[in-house]
Design goal:
40% helix; three-stranded mixed beta sheet; alpha/beta; 292 residues; globular; 11 helices
Length: 292
């Protein structure tokens, strides 16, 4: 994408919470390549984050500002947004399994951390705009949707759903501590637009894949499957393997994130489902080459 593209935002810093992660580092690289000053805020606890940060530093030098901090630290979050014109919030506890093991930590990071970001923006003289990444897990098991079993996948019986996917009007149904914490944060972000007039947008994301992703069995399954295959190691598929996900390249997500910021004035207070759509769906069986 060239510097002439219409969603490029001028003036002020771009602040990215969780900016050393998979999505954050790709977004930071894009904005830095466009000549913007980017402040990456990350606690660097996840595997691969230090590697991503060093990659950004080697490519962009002094335009990259790094702040090692945790979103649970309200004071640090307030310091991080100083001088910001736009903020992206990716920092999170991301795994359902981890949320089941340590639900309090999951809540503190996902809900408490997001509230810290919102309060820091609310305290600004000119609040920066915010794009927050939620998850499709806020829809839970899609109660009321009937599925049929095909040889390699499950599909909705309803032809409209098969053709167009699940819309934002689908009822929310939080499942697992992770679903509850991300869903609660999602709703706080939307309500701060209503209650305080902040310019906020929520992306409820499906499966994102691409470079700089360090996938594990718990999260980032596309990268995890590819790494296991390249290493000649066995794969473990849970359930029937017919679970279907739609895939979106991180480069397309970066473009969508930028467009949301560019048009934040008319999009504020809204949530958008972000994924590859019905034409880019794949089941675990299909992705692993285990189709019956």
């Amino acid at each position: 994408m060239s510097a002439a593209e219409p969603w490029k935002v001028d003036g002020g810093r771009t602040v990215i919470f969780g900016g050393a992660g998979f999505i954050g580092s790709n977004l930071a690289d894009h904005y830095l390549s466009e000549g913007r000053t980017v402040r990456v805020v990350d606690n660097l606890t996840r595997p691969g984050m230090v590697h991503n940060l060093r990659w950004l530093q080697a490519r962009h030098g002094a335009r990259l500002e790094v702040m090692t901090a945790d979103v649970r630290d309200a004071y640090a979050v307030k310091q991080a947004v100083i001088g910001a014109s736009q903020v992206f919030h990716f920092a999170a506890q991301v795994a359902v399994t981890t949320s089941l093991e340590t639900p309090v930590t999951d809540f503190e990071v996902n809900v408490g951390g997001t509230l810290n970001v919102l309060e820091a923006l609310r305290a600004m003289e000119r609040p920066a705009s915010l794009v927050y990444t939620s998850t499709n897990k806020v829809y839970g098991g899609l109660p009321g949707v009937e599925f049929v079993q095909k040889p390699s996948r499950y599909e909705p019986r309803d032809t409209g759903l098969r053709g167009h996917g699940v819309g934002e009007a689908c009822p929310l149904d939080f499942e697992s501590p992770h679903g509850c914490s991300k869903g609660a944060a999602d709703q706080y972000v939307l309500d701060y637009a209503r209650a305080y007039g902040l310019r906020t947008v929520v992306f409820r994301m499906s499966c994102i894949y691409g470079p700089r992703q360090f996938g594990t069995e718990d999260q980032g399954w596309v990268a995890h499957l590819l790494l296991r295959m390249l290493e000649g190691r066995p794969l473990t598929l849970y359930g029937a393997g017919r679970q279907v996900r739609d895939l979106l390249d991180v480069g397309e997500l970066v473009r969508a994130l930028g467009l949301a910021q560019q048009h934040i004035g008319r999009l504020k207070g809204q949530a958008f489902n972000i994924g590859g759509g019905p034409s880019r769906t794949v089941s675990l069986l299909e992705s692993s080459g285990s189709v019956p």
